[in-house]
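4.2 Preliminary Data

To establish feasibility before requesting continued support, the project team ran the inverse folding procedure on a target of 92 residues. The structure was first converted into the token representation described in Section 3, and no sequence information of any kind was made available to the design step. The complete token record follows.
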């Protein structure tokens, strides 16, 4: 079974909030986050997928999820790239 590590972003009035997780069904998991049935932290916000990567095993995905959660520099880089892409697509 394949697992996906993902980073989702939600815009608040002051800044961007991100959440990192892993799943074996990314589409369904994103639906749950956006319907307030996902992780408690994600409830009440609208989330957009900013990053995802597929792994061949659950253990590899869990290790990568943990690493991405702790790597603030990489998370901020992903957020910045997402903002630049989001701005370009919304201004067209």
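Position-by-position output of the design step:
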């Amino acid at each position: 079974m394949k697992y996906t590590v993902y980073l989702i972003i939600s815009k608040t009035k002051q800044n961007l909030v991100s959440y990192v997780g892993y799943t074996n069904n990314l589409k369904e998991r994103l639906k749950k986050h956006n319907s307030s049935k996902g992780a408690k932290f994600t409830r009440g916000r609208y989330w957009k997928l900013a990053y995802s990567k597929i792994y061949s095993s659950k253990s590899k995905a869990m290790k990568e999820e943990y690493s991405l959660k702790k790597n603030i520099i990489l998370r901020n880089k992903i957020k910045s790239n997402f903002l630049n892409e989001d701005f370009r697509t919304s201004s067209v």
